[in-house]
Structures are given as structure tokens and as C-alpha cells.
Write a structure and sequence with these properties.
Elements (H helix, E strand, L loop, with lengths): L12 H19 L5 H17 L1 H12 L4 H27 L2 E3 L9 E8 L2 E5 L7 H12 L3 E5 L5 H14 L5 E4 L4 H5 L7 E5 L2 H12 L5 E4 L5 E4 L5 H13 L11 E5 L3 H15 L15 H16 L3 E4 L16 E4 L6 H4 L6 E7 L2 H9 L6 E5 L3 H9 L5 E4 L20 E2 L4 H7 L1 E8 L16 H11 L1
Amino acid sequence: MVANLVEMPSANPEIAELHRVFQLQKQAYRQRPMPSADERIAHLEQFRRVFVKYIDELAQAANDDFGSRSKDETKIAEILTSLEAAKYYKKNLRKWMRPEKRHVSALQMPASAKVVYQPLGVVGIIVPWNYPIFLAVGPLMCALAAGNRVMIKMSGFTPRVGETVKKMLAEAFAEDHVAVFTGRGEISETFPKLPFDQITFTGSTNVGRTVMAEAAKNLTPVLLELGGKSPVVVHDSYPIVDAAERISFGKCWNAGQTCVAPDYLMLPKGKTQEFVAAFTAQVSKMYPTMLNNPDFTSVINDKQYKRVQSYLDDARAQGAKIIEINPANESFVNTRKIPVTLVTGVTPDMQIMQNEIFGPVLAITEYSTLDDALGYINSRPRPLALYYFDWNSGRADYVAANTHSGGMCVNEVMSHVGVDDLPFGGVGASGMGKYHGREGFMAMSNAKAVLEKPRFYAMRYVLPPFNKSVHKIIKNYLLK
């Protein structure tokens, strides 16, 4: 008998509630294991109708949690993309649900073979703080399209968003279908210990290791999106002004607190000064002021603020040049806003080049040849995203073929995440598994192989004893 690895509920009422809802969803799944396409489309439409009602409340909640978070960025990056995802899954899930006919070899004939995609069951989603709306409802869309029941653990660092999402989804779904949990501490530790049929986790590598270790105790499959240091390479032929404009979008959005944000920049030798001037001009145009500018987002909390500042202090102490872009010459003392900052003269042993920055800071280094740049990238953990700037598609294809990353953009940063038909996820140290697109549906479905035989039973001719003519035919066939 396989041991039951589910921990008994503790005296903590939140933990008892977690276990109660889990059992409720497991029971509901057993009673309705294969929702029809019409049911799934109705579930997605339920979500969309309620989500639209909460747009302004969600944007305000994110602003409150961050201390200052651009409401327009929230609406574009988190709400609009979520609505587009719901539309995309509604459009495609019927096609994905159809059984796929597969080939049957001569040895198995007569027979028919197919793959049937069925829901996994109860899926757990663990949400980070940086995009708490999109990274809750994005995996939720995949799970609902695949016909699953869903439990969501919101980040304790965005409590207002967490409570708003909880209220919103409770309005759209019964708790035996979709349930949301908030808070920190024991509930965060207990959530990945439940024997889910799959866990999707977005967050840091260290926490990802913990989630995976807990999931392994129940043999629960995990989909991990872990981030990492996403590099940007600009080819010598590419206009620096154009590169600065496009890269600044990704570095400034959400104050760089994005898992696929440009982390460090590799420029051709001698191009740093030109880039610094162009980047400074572009950022100054977007954010003529930063301190009280609602378009410029704060670092989420004191812990993250101190972490980013420690990277800057370490780089400065080791001889790097710190260039703050502060058009209005404002003081940011006693705030969690960090002006957009460039760091030049970096070396590989600096903390800023060892750790994911996750803030409005861009490290800049130079390379001699394109292969030198790719060699540097390939000698480090595989990133979640890689960005290459070059109008020459042949060289872009070369870069794509000779590097590994979860995703890649050519002449752009970050936007691939918003393309519904592209899979999203990491590789190696930046994660495992993909969601978004058809890959999301597949990741949250069980691809069940089904072989069907007719009344005529051909196997009787190959049963023992193994001295029949058919066995000689099979032996000759195998030796060909």
C-alpha cells in the first residue's frame, strides 16, 4: 500500500480550511471528471464577466500594495492580457479537446489508436507578488480550459490584491471549483504539501526548490517559472538610439520587477557611452519626474529595496560606475522608489552580475565578437528570456540556435509573454514546463493513450507455444 503523505490538519483554522476545500474539490472532480467544451467555455465566460467588474478595484489594490504602482501598467500588463487569454482559450479549447488519431503498426492490427486529453484533477497555483493578478489568472485560464478544479495561493506581500482576487473569484465560482487562499507563514508552507494533481509555481529559484521538494513527496508534477538573469545583446550594426528606446520599456515597466525584464546588457566594444546618453534621454522623456509620478512604480517592500541597494553598494565598492537617471534631481530618501540606474564597468564576480536584479537597474558590459557574447551567456545558468537586437534575420537565427533560454525576442523585450499562442516558461535553472497557448492546455491535461481492438482477436495466432508459422514470419520481419 502506498503511504498517505497528506499531513493532518493543524489546530490553525486556516490550515483546516485549506484541507477542507482540497477534499471538497477532489470529491467534486470525482463526480464530474470530464467537463464538456460547452461547460469549460461557460466557466471562462463566468470569469470574464466578473473580472471586468473588478478592473478598477484590482488596479487600486495593486497600487496600495506597492505603495505606488502605475494603474495603467496594471491594466495593460495584468488585466488586458488576462482578458485576451480568456478569449484565446474560449476560441481554441474545442479543437484541443478532440481526441487525436494515432498510427497503429502492422503488429497491432487490426486496431485503432487515439490520445484523449482529460483534466488532471485539482491543480494548485502559487502566485508571486510582482504580477499578482496576471500570474494568478493566467494559469487559472489554462486550468479551466483543461477542465480542472483550482486552488490558488496568493502572495502574502500583496494582501490587498489577494483579498480582491479572492472576493472576485468567489463571485464567479463555487469553492469546489475555484478557491483562493491568502496570508503568509504556515499556510504558505502547507499549500505545496497537499497532494495536488499538479502545482504551478512562479517565483524565486530558492522557493521553487522548496516547492518542488514538497511536491516530490506526493509525486506531484510541478510547472516552475523561476526567472533568472535575462541578457540583452545588441549587434554592432543596430542603431543605439532604437535599442535604448526598446530596452528602456522593459527595464522601467513595473520598476524592473518582472521575471523577464532585461537584466544585463551586452554592447559592442566602445558603444557604452552612446547607449548611456540615448537611454538617459529616453527615460527622462518617459519619466520627467519620478518621486510623485504615479506612472513610476515603487519597489514592493523594504526587503526588496535593501536587496537592490546592496547590489549597487557592492558594485560601487568594486569600482563600477553608478549612473542614476534623475531628471528632476529629486531626493528618494525614506521612499521605496529607486531611480532608473545604469551600472557600467561591471565584472562577473559582482553581486549585480551574479544575482537576478529584479529592480530598475541595468548592468552594462561590452563584448568583442558575437560569439564571445554568446559564450558568456552559455557559460551561465539558462535564462528565462534572451533578447537580441539585429535587423539581420540570419544572425538572429544563429543566436537562437546557439543559445538556450525559456523564450526569446528579436528587436524587442518582454512582449513574447503577451502572445497567447506562444508557450511561456523556463529551461534549466529558469524553470521547467510551459503554460500559455496550447502548451498550457497540454501541461494541465493528461494525454491518455487509448488502443481499441475489434471483435476479431488477432493475438490468438501469436500466443504460445512459440513454434507456429506466424512466429517465423515475425522473426524474419524483425531481422530485416
